[in-house]
Amino acid sequence: MAGTIRLTTSQALIKFLNQQYIHVDGEESAFVEGIFTVFGHGNVLGIGQALEQDSGHLKVFQGKNEQGMAHAAIAFSKEKRRRKIMAVSTSAGPGSANVVTAAATAFANQLPVLFLPGDTFATRQPDPVLQQLEQEYSIAVTTNDALKPVSRYWDRITRPEQLMSSLLRAFEVLTDPARCGPVTICICQDTAGEAFDYDEAFFSKRVHYMDRLAPSERELLAATELIRRSRRPLIIAGGGVRYSGAREELMAFSSAYDIPIVETQAGKSAVESTFANNLGGMGLTGTSSANKAAQEADLIIGIGTRYSDFTTSSKTAFDFENTAFLNINVSRLHAYKLDALQVVADAKTALSRLHGMLEGYRTEFGERIGQLKREWDGERERLAGIVFAREGFDPEVKGHFTQEQLNEYADALGTELPQSSALLAINEALAPDSIIVGAAGSLPGDLQRAWSASEPDTYHVEYGYSCMGYEISGALGVKLAKPDCEVYSIVGDGSFLMLHSELITALQYNHKINVLLFDNSGFGCINNLQMGNGGGSYFCEFRNDEKQIMNIDYAKVAEGYGAKAYRVNTLDQLREALADAKQQSRSTLIDIKVLPKTMTDGYGGWWNVGVAEVSESESIRQAHESRMSKLQGAKSY
Ligand SMILES: Cc1ncc(C[n+]2csc(CCOP(=O)(O)OP(=O)(O)O)c2C)c(N)n1
Ligand SMILES: O=C1C[C@@H](O)[C@H](O)[C@@H](O)C1=O
Ligand SMILES: [Mg+2]
Questions:
Q1: What pTM was estimated for this model as a whole?
Q2: What range(s) does the Thiamine pyrophosphate enzyme TPP-binding domain occupy (predicted)?
Q3: What's the longest Cα–Cα distance across the chain?
Q4: Is 272 annotated as a binding residue?
Q5: Is the domain of 53 the same as that of 136?
Q6: Do 397 and 322 lie in a common domain?
Q7: Total count of domains within the chain
Q8: Which residues lie below 8 Å from residue 498, measured CB to CB, with a gap of 6+?
């Protein structure tokens, strides 16, 4: 037997993390980049001590909020195509409770992150230790059990030697493209400092091979037969296309056979928006062109998509009677959806294999693709040119606010800027290789429809969980992954207020991010949702007890942190601020006051939401009826 080495559990953990490598397409690199920490009594004396003694190549970051730093870790692995991760170390109790939301975000998006929350004492000697729940039905239940449903692998370390088998399971999951996601290893706070004679072999360099899963001959033959039978197949490009790095194969496949492409939020910018066959966003927040193409299609080829309700317009986006589905996905769970023919395989490999088998085939879309694309380009131009007027203004979201109410907003916020024009002006001004980051509110809808990503992999919107607060933390994670790119967080005022603490971390460590804050003084998209379904405007506008609209000086908040800040009420000011922000070496925030109801809306999508079945309001009763009638045409599972 090889020798042993005496280490604490935490020292062994850090030593092991330093020895994990990943191998993809012949390239090998270290898998764990670093570790975010907020120290408390549950981790500072264990993991804190181990890092202080010898962190190896791991970069150590001090987070400001556990959820925020975990979101940065998620964004990092998303940007690195799941081929490099960050670990997240928290204290016990509230520190670990704070990462439940982030673990759920990582879970829904299938992004690998290693969570290392502290836990109660294994010996139970001091029970109840500070922050212990003392659950009556079981002393073994701690806050960390709340992480079980949002972890792909979960374990609790109560003895130092358990760490070895636990970490092997953890890294097997973290490096599997079909099952990866958040992995949680809770470490009891006494165990964290306890020593053990570890087998030295445990710390040898380990290489995890992320081999590309190839389709079987049976799958390929069935898929080509299905495509050949189809006259109008349509590709939905999901996140899997980006994780697989299948841009070239997808473009070649689409061009060779004239197959239009539509994009999900996660798949957007897998192929640049300017590509002739790319019809843009699909579904509820999609373009009219993509949604029309989906209705006209007789075969949907879903590549690396999990078919969320936003993508399928709650299963109304297709002519289900006459449309077949072909799913290419590394995950069997997703490949099985919508009764599809399943090709359980890596996107890049599957596309290149299929390409060679379809000689002579061509779809009937022909000129229709260019026609649909031009149609949307025209609509984009209209959106960019919208100008507010004090009289007779017809906002994109219609019939909710009167002209007087819109004027009241214009006065209170001192602005006449429509959201869509501001966003498109930003799109025009930013360097094409800038990366934009978003997650929640009305902005992801505008972005999926109207943002032109003229370079691949420049669009980073977390919409698997659409978690408010991801936008700024996520921008930090993206910057850490791509330090040479200019990174822009596109965030609503509601999301900003919910969580922006990692802006301080970005300032602290000099990782420049730019925050583009769209302030419409409210939870705008939810206000649209309630009013669009027959309700009133109820607790979604930011008004005080006197019903006055709140006007918060967010630029001042950012200045307080040390960021360079700008106040913007016109397109000219916006362009100037963007130009100046680009010259800065420190993080910036542009406080853009925009009018409510001026985000994009419509374009053929539909969302099945829980409208009240009985109500005193006629408009709500109508909304319920219209939902029921829409559901008649929806696929029921
Ligand atoms: C953590 C979290 N809580 C609640 C929601 C539900 N939600 C979605 S969007 C939204 C309001 C967003 O407001 P804001 O960021 O100002 O964007 P706007 O819609 O006004 O553009 C809320 C409350 C969410 N997505 N995430
Ligand atoms: O409830 C929601 C509605 C969506 O419009 C929004 O983008 C998303 O953040 C959400 O949670
Ligand atoms: Mg808002």
A1: 0.98
A2: 440-592
A3: 85
A4: no
A5: yes
A6: no
A7: 3
A8: 468, 469
